[in-house]
Amino acid sequence: MPYRAPVDEYRFLFDHIVGLGQVTATDRFAEATPDMTAAILSEAGRMCEEVLYPLQRPGDMTPARLENGVVRTSPGYAEGYRAIADGGWVSISAHPDHGGMGLPMTLTTAVNEMMSSACLALQLNPLMTQGQIEAIEHHASDALKAIYLPRLVSGAWSGTMNLTEPQAGSDVGALRTRAEPNGDGTYAITGQKIYISWGDNDFTENVCHLVLARLPDGVPGTKGISLFLVPKYIPDDNGDPGRPNGLHVVSLEHKMGLHGSPTAVMQYDGATGWLVGKPHDGMRAMFTMMNNARLGVGGQGIGVAEAAFQHALAYATDRKQGRTPVRGGTGAIIDHADVRRMLATMRADTFAARAIALACAQAIDMQTATGEAHWAARAAFLTPIAKAFGTDTGIAVSDMGIQVHGGMGFIEETGAAQYLRDVRVTAIYEGTNGIQAMDLASRKLMDGGEAAHAMLDEIEAQAETARGTLPDLAEPVWQASETLREAVEWMVAQQDTTQRFAGAAPFLRGVARVLGGHFHLKAALAEGGDGPRSRLARFYITRLLPEHAGLLAHATQGADDLYALTPEDFAA
Amino acid sequence: MPYRAPVDEYRFLFDHIVGLGQVTATDRFAEATPDMTAAILSEAGRMCEEVLYPLQRPGDMTPARLENGVVRTSPGYAEGYRAIADGGWVSISAHPDHGGMGLPMTLTTAVNEMMSSACLALQLNPLMTQGQIEAIEHHASDALKAIYLPRLVSGAWSGTMNLTEPQAGSDVGALRTRAEPNGDGTYAITGQKIYISWGDNDFTENVCHLVLARLPDGVPGTKGISLFLVPKYIPDDNGDPGRPNGLHVVSLEHKMGLHGSPTAVMQYDGATGWLVGKPHDGMRAMFTMMNNARLGVGGQGIGVAEAAFQHALAYATDRKQGRTPVRGGTGAIIDHADVRRMLATMRADTFAARAIALACAQAIDMQTATGEAHWAARAAFLTPIAKAFGTDTGIAVSDMGIQVHGGMGFIEETGAAQYLRDVRVTAIYEGTNGIQAMDLASRKLMDGGEAAHAMLDEIEAQAETARGTLPDLAEPVWQASETLREAVEWMVAQQDTTQRFAGAAPFLRGVARVLGGHFHLKAALAEGGDGPRSRLARFYITRLLPEHAGLLAHATQGADDLYALTPEDFAA
């Protein structure tokens, strides 16, 4: 059951749903012509199908391991990584000044998704590097840029993010790693970091760690944190990897999935680091890195959803079992109503999550190209939704994929279970989905809900337009948008963020449900209301969209009843 | 983080929610006095806490394996099984005529749940034996009963169910295993069966397989299937295990979870079998076995939900991270609104699923004790809900348990991931949850919805009663019941079962949501509207119950739009 890159799907989304044309009409992204876009999609797609997808199972069965302090990666991963680097796929959005192609994030998002479908564990490596490139582009000195950017963009070196410590997870401000000035402009970094994805490997010449640490005069909490670049090998005068730095991998985690990706405990013992950005301003630099990484992780979820869907579809069209009299029946289990319901749910939600993520990427591109604040606000609003709904969809679709397989789904050889085991972490890392929801319900509504209302205005304007041709689809989307508007107003009216947080998770999911209705309606409109996308839109709008009402009822209950439940109540 | 058997929770449910007293007031179950019930719960609970729970992780890390044709079970499993057998916990509901205690299924359900919490992989063994005992009690000859029942009830021997073949899963009628008369009253069984849970072990003296096969004159499909008892060792004249039978384990599956439970491919090569029930009537006998096994599997899901909840709660009350100003704050992550929301959801749904399962068990007991048809109808109606909602809750709660743990949840040493990996299969085996939903939406409404409406009448009568004291909780439950009544009427009105099947899964979940509201309201009433159960009921009714509307909207869309989506559409 091979993976097939959904190139036509991206083209449709680019052309009709998220407006890539608007991006490529700007000077900044003028080079991303339709021909270029087509070539990128088809070449990246082919690599994913032919080179990366065959690495998925071997990575699961032969995890990365630590041997005498050295990380040995899974069979074929070195060759897979070489194909990614040689194809220029580590970062097609990096600035041309440093060897990048300067292409839109919209395109990067599609390419990242395809790589995630094909081999999530390996794709996580260049995704981390992409974030590092962005942080260095925005915050590092020219000297650091000159050494690091070309090598990261080419894939010769790879990058990691070092935030978490045992006592400092979601609460980054509690970190204890120290940075002491060496007197020569460098710093001695000392401390232990955990959950470092791709903390080491045996296929890049160097591994560059971006490490959050506290300077001697750093105050407690997040305001006393600085960001340092700490390479595995210290670059020599030519910029080549020189002597080993004072850091090592202590151990690798034994994880539920993503076995091909080594998750390291890293120890820094006075390792030499270079400051990135200003002292005590590390969180801002880290957020640059994390913001787009959140979109990237959302794309990971969507990529896995796509692959799990294809896998289940192939099984459902092949497996004969039982008989159901249906028009055009195939004799396979896809004829069964409940199997078809599952497949339609998987596909409809994958489309919704993908449209949200690409709309987010498009807003980032428009912000980059125009500098206009409303694009920045739109991107900021959509980012936590793209991350949380994308990864929740990855998990839900993978889980449904197991169910479509019946008993086979529980057997590892089938491959369906691996999707769920692999993708499960995406709802946790890069900020748990709970953190994403809190971000949406508080910081992303700090504008009084302006960005949210702008989105709702757009949804309702389109629904108004669609009333003429697709009234039965337009009306529920318009109604859902109104219900969501009330929920947004309720959120904005809460002065106490705890009141918002108590319903943040269902609020985020409710927003995603309504956005999904909007994009499905748009797809149906683009098709003239008749065709596969319109049929899928009808499925989504009549069956899945209604979920928003229950979610938004939950979202606006406030915190009082929740906190009336005491810890003692739970133990009762 | 030890597991604590929720003995008080069962007592509360027995006394106030599901009416165990009504059961023990019958002659048949008069021996189940309150003292006896208390003793059973506390003794079984202690065994689960002290003996079974420590076996959970070792079973995962050291799976059962096949060595030279012999199954070697996980470390400590033999001793764990011995404790189950010696305690009499294999089947406390078996009839006293055969060494059983004849206790109510309501009590068995609680005991099974606790064993599932403690060690699901091992508990699956006696659960299979329980089903076999029931099939033999109802359908086997006196001669077979005399040999097999005492040994199965004591746990000296264990039982399995052999239905599935590679081409015959949910479509059992497609099976090919043959049974040829030997001329001496026995039959020669030949064929291959897959997914045989506990197909062999190294701790019971004999393993008794109930095997579905076709006699030479059996017609194709389910009407030509007969049931045979095929022991691993053929009993000698004393009933002791004699010469080996013509069967063997071909291989064990490599599964996503439940590693401690050997899932076998079984080969029968002219193995000697004894007919159970009448020729060609095997499905009826198998349904006796499967019906209560479905309730048992629902209990597995609930048991795992309980354990995963306790595990997450312990973490959330221990783990310090971030600061949230809350009344009576503990400084641990349980103070965070979103964490508390997850824990409350886990606990509220576990309560709902448990109440449904115990209500189902109680109806079975009343049917057994009184023979009244309305109890049978109630039990039949609740069984697929208990199975599907119980297991879906097990999966959802385990998944949320991972999320509560954050990054730790993805690390296997934590133990949170194992709950999800183990419980995932419960939505698949003993009839997938899709099959359960189809059963509910078709066969369980063949009475024109009488059993459903009886349930709804009960829900609304209670809600009417509650209006006086708890109007804000009573009203939404009453309204939800009315919405559900409309959905039931819609279902009953569909002549074409495909129309029902297209919405069967959301229908089942919608029914469960409303039943959950009913039982939570009942708990609040029992407490006088003030206390931990009332606070949990408020959480459920205001936040989770609203989900029913979206589900029932989905449930009543019919099949036309669904089948308008062609297989080609999915590949688009």
Automatic annotation (TrEMBL), chains A, B:
Enzyme Commission number(s) of this protein: 1.3.99.41
The keyword Metal-binding is annotated on this UniProt entry: no
Domain Acyl-CoA oxidase/dehydrogenase middle: 161-269
Cofactor: FAD
UniProt keyword annotations, A-Z: FAD, Flavoprotein, Oxidoreductase
Chain ranges of the Acetyl-CoA dehydrogenase-like C-terminal domain: 456-565
Keyword Flavoprotein among record annotations: yes
Catalyzed reaction equations: 3-(methylsulfanyl)propanoyl-CoA + oxidized [electron-transfer flavoprotein] + H(+) = 3-(methylsulfanyl)acryloyl-CoA + reduced [electron-transfer flavoprotein]
Function field: Involved in the assimilation of dimethylsulphoniopropionate (DMSP), an important compound in the fixation of carbon in marine phytoplankton, by mediating the conversion of 3-(methylthio)propanoyl-CoA (MMPA-CoA) to 3-(methylthio)acryloyl-CoA (MTA-CoA).
Family: Belongs to the acyl-CoA dehydrogenase family.
Name this protein carries in UniProt: 3-methylmercaptopropionyl-CoA dehydrogenase
